[in-house]
Structures are given as C-alpha cells and as structure tokens.
Amino acid sequence: MTQKTALLLIQLGTPDSPSTKDVRRYLREFLNDPRVIDLPWLARKILVNGVIVPFRAPKSAKIYQELWQKSGGSSPLLSHTTNVQDQLQARLQGEVDVYMAMRYQNPSLCSVTEAMKEKNYEHIIILPLFPQYASASSGSAIALATNLISEWWAIPQMSIINQFWDNEGYIDSIVARASDFNLADYDHILFSYHGLPERHVDKVYPGDQLCRDQFCEDEINGTNALCYKATSYATTRELARKLRLTPEQYTVCFQSRLDKEWLTPFSDEVVKELAQKGSQKILVFSPAFVADCLETVIEIGDEYQEIFTEHGGKTVQLVPSCNDHPRFLDGLEEIVRQKM
User: Fold this and answer.
1) What domains sit in the chain, N to C, each tagged with a CATH number?
2) Best CA proximity match to 14, nearest among 320, 297, 241
3) Which of 102, 180, 257, 316 could form an SS bridge with 195, CB 3.0 to 4.6 Å?
C-alpha cells in the first residue's frame, strides 16, 4: 500500500513587499536566527535590533523596490519557487502533495506545516532548496521544520534532503542556462557563491580542526562532505568539467560578505581585479541560488556591473539561475522519487 506522502519545499524567504516596514520585519526575523548570526542571545539582539536593522532596512527597501520593478512587480524568488512547486505537483499528481514555505516570512513554515498536519500524512519529505549545505540556510530550515512537526501528536516518517549539489538535473540545468552564451566571448568566468563567515565552516569539523586544513578546494572526502566551501568548489569542478573549462578560465568566489572574516576570495574584489587587469567581458554563474533573487539580479547584475565599469571593464553578464528549468525539475523529481 502506498504511503500518503507530502513534499515540503523550503526557500530562504522574501519581504512581503519592498516597503521599509516589510523589509524591516523580514530582516529582523532573518538576522535574529542564531544559525545566521551565531552570537550570544543578548549580543545578537542588540546588534540586530539596535544597529543593523534600523540602519539597513531603509537602504535595503530601495534595493528591493528596484528588484520588484525589474521582476514585473513581485518577488522573483517567490514567483520562481511557486512555479517549481506547481510544476512538481503536476509531475507528482496522485503520488505526492507538494507544499512550499519560506524560512523567513510568508508563506511561513508555521502556517504551511499546520496545514499539512490536517492531512495526516504518513511520510513527509523535507527539501530545502539550497544545493550546498550550510547551517545558516539548509540547517536552519531543517531545524525549524522538524521542530514544528515534532510537536504533532502523531509524528510521521520524515525524510530530509540536506543538500543536492551533485544531483545531475541541478548541474545540467546550469549547463543548459550557459548554452545561451558563447563562453569563448568572455575573458573570464566567475562562479560566485553566497558568502559565509569562516567560523561557520570551521564549526563543521570536530575539535580544533579548521576548514583551511581540509583540502576543501580540491576534494570531497569523509570529513568535509557537509562543508559549504568544499561543496561549492566541488559543484564548480563538476560544472567546469561539463562546460569544458580549464582552471585558468574561471574563479570560485564568494559574495554578500559582512566583514573580512568571511570566505575568500570576495566576488566584488575579483570583479575589480579582473577589470584592472584588462578584462572587458566576464560571465558570472551563481550556483548557490536556484532561483533568481536580490543577490543575483541586483548584486551581480547591477552592482558588479558598476564596479567592473568603474575600473575599466565593459560587460558583466549574469547567467540566470535554475529557476523552473525542466532539467532542474527533473532533478528534484528524481530526488523525491528516491525517497518515496
């Protein structure tokens, strides 16, 4: 007899609107997560609520307004993720009910899991839409979802997908996006991943071991399989293999840093250095983001273009994210069927 199964897709989150009020609410929830800013409770509250959010919310609201305008008046992250949910539901109709929630803001994990509770599912598959595991993204989403479900009187079987960077459909969808561009036309190629504090990846390792001692740039092994830096480099190696790129043609880098103690090299500095060395056209992939969002459309598409032009370059071309590409959907469907 087939189990009554639900799939729970989880994305990071988005403000309900680009208004300062909604952006402030989003940032307060996001940055107060102890898996995002891993400071003691009181220090985090003072820093986030007293310093970061009051100063950052008005500036971020202007950026979100620009993003909304570029994306037809709505959040591209929400639109693309809803499309993925709808198309997966069509593929899995009669076998699995597909739900979608945001870790921060709406549709909230609390409201979505409450709706799922009423259906008495025997099996819930939890799939955060973050290809490379990080405690601040995948870990936070998994922790909250499982905590909410564990409060039910009847707790169903749960299957958790904590990362899928090596899924063939995911990789192939990025390669397919690249087919819209002639790679030979570009002086250099960047694979830009969202940044993390170095201490976050160091916490993956037991005792006094550090990420920098694990050969994360070169291999995945039994020790670093859940290290974000290691899986980012592994993702890039697989993409480079399929795109037939030599190591000299590309650079792995990390964006959206808050201070100098984050993973390096920093994407914005790499963009600046390439322009100063004479590069005129660069192509940028963003493999950590499966849906286009502020970090891809605005940070890479606009802000890095400004940096590149300012220092002598001409064109920064963003490769669109997986979004709802059929090969990405193939990959997600494969992951779900393996867990059924």
Assistant:
1) 5-163 (3.40.50.1400), 168-318 (3.40.50.1400)
2) 297
3) 257
pLDDT tens column, 160-199: 999 999 999 999 999 999 999 999 999 999 999 999 999 9
- Say if CB 317 and CB 186 are below 8 A apart: yes
CA distances from 295 to 230, 286, 309 (A): 21, 9, 19
Q: What is the pLDDT of residues 43-65, one digit of tens each?
A: 999 999 999 999 999 999 999 99
pLDDT-based confidence at residue 1 (cuts at 50, 70, 90): low
Residue 246's CB: how many other CB atoms inside 10 A? 7
Q: Is the pTM of this model over 0.85?
A: yes
Alpha-carbon gap, residue 196 to 268, rounded angstroms: 15
227/216 Cα distance (integer angstroms): 8
Which among 98, 145, 93 has a CA at the least distance from the CA of 119? Answer: 98
Nearest alpha-carbon partner for 289 in 195, 201, 159, 178: 195
Q: Which two tokens stand for residue 320?
A: 């669109």
The number of residues making up the chain comes to 340
| pLDDT bracket for residue 257 (50, 70, 90) | confident
- Note the pLDDT tens digit of each residue in 131-171: 999 999 999 999 999 999 999 999 999 999 999 999 999 99
Query: Among 106, 154, 184, 165, which residue's Cα sits nearest to residue 290?
Result: 165
Please report which residue ranges of the chain form alpha helices under DSSP H.
20-31, 41-47, 53-70, 76-91, 109-117, 140-150, 168-178, 198-202, 228-243, 267-276, 305-310, 326-339
**Does the annotation list 295 as a binding residue?**
yes
